[in-house]
């Protein structure tokens, strides 16, 4: 597609439950990035992929967060055992060759 | 990591006024992008501008890479320009992800 698609738009989970978010990058883009926006103005990088390979995962809290980008499937970000502080908007972005990043509409995760 | 500072943090304008938003960064960059986050939370690409000057309608941007800053100019502001403007940079060394500033919240009043 011509836009980055993210599903669902909103996700509500009880503390300790699992959350799974999906991202379909723009067709032909090799790079996928996940960012977390908390407190409205603060963005945190989580992980990036080059095709199906992890490119950089320095931002991932590895004990509870995992992500995949498999061929012919949307990329996914999964949070096991969600905590209150995981409440945020999660953005996916894609780029063709590491230059301009195009962002999806985001998934708002609320952990109660 | 690289530091990205934006100023001013908040700006209130009368419709029709012009404004300049500033982004300072602490290290050399491969990539610099300006985004507008509208009141619905969408992040809209404004410019990819690691150096030089670009214009798109009422908006223009200039990046002086050697002095590590970028400026976003908004002319003849409209109420639909309201939202938060973010500058984000990719450092020249290390990772290819973006580091965001804390944004400038713009409110345009009729």
Explain the layout of strands and helices.
The complex is a heterodimer of chains A (112) and B (110).
Chain A: E1 5-7, E2 10-13, E3 19-24, E4 31-38, E5 42-50, E6 53-56, E7 65-68, E8 75-79, E9 88-95, E10 102-103, E11 107-111
Parallel strand pairs in A: 2-11
Antiparallel strand pairs in A: 1-3, 3-8, 4-5, 4-9, 5-6, 7-8, 9-10, 9-11
Chain B: E1 4-7, E2 10-14, E3 19-25, E4 29-37, E5 43-48, E6 52-56, E7 59-64, E8 69-74, E9 83-91, E10 99-100, E11 104-109
Parallel strand pairs in B: 2-11
Antiparallel strand pairs in B: 1-3, 3-8, 4-5, 4-9, 6-7, 7-8, 9-10, 9-11
Structural write-up:
The complex is a heterodimer of chains A (112) and B (110). Chain A is an all-beta fold. Chain A has no helices and eleven strands. In chain A, strands 2, 4, 5, 6, 9, 10 and 11 form a seven-stranded mixed β-sheet that branches. In chain A, strands 1-3-8-7 form a four-stranded antiparallel β-sheet, with no helix packed on it. In chain A, strand 7 and strand 8 form a beta hairpin. Chain A is globular, with a radius of gyration of 13 Å. The termini of chain A are far apart. With 110 residues, chain B is an all-beta fold. In chain B, the strands form two sheets. In chain B, strands 2, 4, 5, 9, 10 and 11 form a six-stranded mixed β-sheet that branches. In chain B, a hairpin with a 2-residue loop joins strand 6 and strand 7. Chain B is globular and about 45 Å long. The mean pLDDT of chain B is 96. Chains A and B meet through strand 4, strand 5, strand 9 and strand 10 of A and strand 4, strand 5, strand 9 and strand 10 of B.
């Amino acid at each position: 597609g011509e836009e980055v698609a993210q599903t669902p738009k909103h996700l509500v989970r009880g503390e300790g439950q699992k959350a799974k978010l999906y991202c379909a990058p723009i067709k032909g883009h090799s790079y996928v990035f996940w960012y977390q926006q908390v407190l409205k103005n603060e963005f945190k990088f989580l992980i990036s992929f080059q095709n199906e390979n992890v490119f950089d995962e320095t931002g991932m809290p590895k004990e509870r967060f995992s992500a995949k980008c498999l061929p012919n499937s949307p990329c996914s970000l999964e949070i096991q055992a969600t905590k209150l502080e995981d409440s945020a908007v999660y953005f996916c972005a894609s780029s063709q060759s590491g230059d301009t990043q195009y962002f999806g509409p985001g998934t708002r995760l609320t952990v109660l | 990591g690289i530091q990205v500072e934006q100023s001013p943090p908040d700006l209130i304008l009368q419709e029709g006024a012009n404004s300049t938003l500033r982004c300072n960064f602490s290290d050399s960059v491969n990539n610099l992008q300006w985004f507008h986050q509208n009141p619905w939370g969408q992040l809209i690409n404004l410019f990819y501008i690691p150096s030089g000057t670009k214009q798109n309608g009422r908006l223009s941007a200039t990046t002086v890479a050697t002095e590590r800053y970028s400026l976003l100019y908004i002319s003849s502001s409209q109420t639909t320009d309201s939202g938060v403007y973010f500058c984000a940079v990719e450092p020249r060394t290390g990772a290819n992800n973006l580091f965001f500033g804390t944004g400038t919240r713009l409110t345009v009043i009729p």
